[in-house]
Amino acid sequence: MRRPWPWRGAPAEAALGSLRSALLRWLLIPLLILVALNAVSVYRNALAAADVAYDRSLLASTRALAERVSIVAGKVVADVPYVALDSFETDTLGRIYYKVTGLGGETVSGYGDLPPVPANVPRSEAYPALVRFYQADYNGQPIRIAALLQPVYDDSMRGIALIQVGETLDARRGLSNQILFDTLLWQAGLVLAVATLVWFAVRLVLRPLMRIRGVLETRALSDLSDVDPALVHREVRPLVSAMNGSMARLQSLIASQRRFIADAAHQLRTPLTVLKTQAELALRACERHHDEPAALRDIVHSMAATTDATVNLANRLLTLARIEHGAEGGAMAPLSLRALARRVGLEMAPAAVHRRIDLSLDAEREAWVTGQELLLHELLANLVDNALRYTAPGGSVSLRVRAGAGKVELEVEDNGPGIDAAERERVFAPFYRAAATLEVNPGGAGLGLAIVRDIAALHGAAIALSDGAGGRGLKVRVTFASGAA
After folding, report:
1. pTM of the entire structure?
2. How many Cα atoms occupy the beta-carbon half-sphere of 94 within 13 Å?
3. pLDDT the model gives residue 479
């Protein structure tokens, strides 16, 4: 079955990769291919031009020698001076060989063993002379030979003499290597210059997209406002418009979820509160009438405990849902953590008295942080509530706020059963409960520390668990940046 592209399950990065890399590849690879083809073409044309120049020089030498060929006393002779012979045998760029063949095929002068003209070599159409150019091996070296048919005559006879002049290919090879080197050097410089220009051009063209990335990365988590399409090129604006539409739909979905959470909170809390009230009334009625069966009183006690646990679970689930869905806990603003701790301590004091637990507050110095007051109140309340729930009657819970060295530390310490070191990372997962806490409070929800972790993360705070004083109990430390969350 044919799969759409990119197919489902294939990550976009693996399917498409970098836009900048793709642009550079599609611009530079064809350019490299074209430059390579152009280099081959330039090299071949340069070699052809060099061959023409060397062949013309070779033909000039052949003609100069042909002018000294004549008929004397019925014989073909070649009047080649000594200086000319010396220049024919050797040149600064290689060796030169010659041969003059008479009317009957006899060697008149030069190297008699110079390779003959092959039968299939055509006459050169580039020159009016009857000349043929061919390559052969002589004395173990490749040579280029020009063979010129030269008419000779006198009053008694006439005919055609053959003049051959050959030269080694050293000069041609040196020129070919120089042409190749110059061509590659020029083309490499050209490719480097063009690649640099293309790289800068691609960076310049992609700069608006990088600007949009910077704008999105610096936004707050809850900021889903539109991106200005004017920041990018006209061709990319439909993509930005589509992204804005997607964020608008996402914003609508989040708003709908927030309304659902608020409605669920109301719908859950109201009947649970009524049920708890009814259970408490029934329990009081049972306590007033001592003749009620003990089994009935136990049932009513169980109903009250279950209702209380359910209310607590619902409240924490709704709080966790608000945090996970980015619900606003109020605007980020400077607030006094000492004042907040004092308020939470007063709120939790009745529960501490009821459980016969000593709840103390140590906050001598003022400590300011920047955060959402409602969420930080929830963080403190969860930490203190956990400490009270898992501390035995007669125990103690200490709430401390300390400021200094650019940070603010909040500590809640108890002398309850504590949490084993191997479980301290796992207890931040929702619904996970340490083994020691199950024995003390079997009806717990396992959400308190998960809520604390999420609120701390939202405020950029670090949270750490350790043993309490004397190695007993649990100490929770939350560290904020001083004056900023």
Report:
1. 0.44
2. 18
3. 92
